[in-house]
Specification:
By secondary structure, the protein is an alpha+beta fold. The chain has a domain of 38 residues. It is built from one helix and three strands; from the N terminus they run αβββ. It has a three-stranded antiparallel beta sheet, covered by helices on one side.
Length: 87
């Protein structure tokens, strides 16, 4: 299977709101970079209270050849019933 790598956009992605916290902006930039580098995995996880969750994880390759998964975003089956528009 051939791996396709696309470079990250040179210009920042425009946002609708200007009051996004710096921590959220940094996390989003890390996710964008991981996607551009092809260092992501879709991982089936379990909620601590029970039930499955699908999570987008960044993949850090370790010096010993192992990998570290870093949760970065969650996918929902029915997002309209989980989140709504901001104020």
């Amino acid at each position: 299977m051939q791996r396709i790598v696309r470079p990250a956009p040179k210009e920042p992605v425009p946002t609708i709101e200007s009051d996004i916290p710096e921590l959220a902006k940094a996390a989003f930039d890390q996710l964008r970079q991981a996607l551009a580098d092809g260092r992501v995995a879709l991982v089936r996880c379990r909620y601590r209270a029970g039930g499955d969750a699908w999570v987008i994880c960044g993949v850090n390759v370790l010096a010993d050849g192992g990998a570290e998964l870093v949760p970065m975003a969650q996918l929902w089956d029915d997002p309209e019933n989980v989140v709504g528009p901001g104020e």
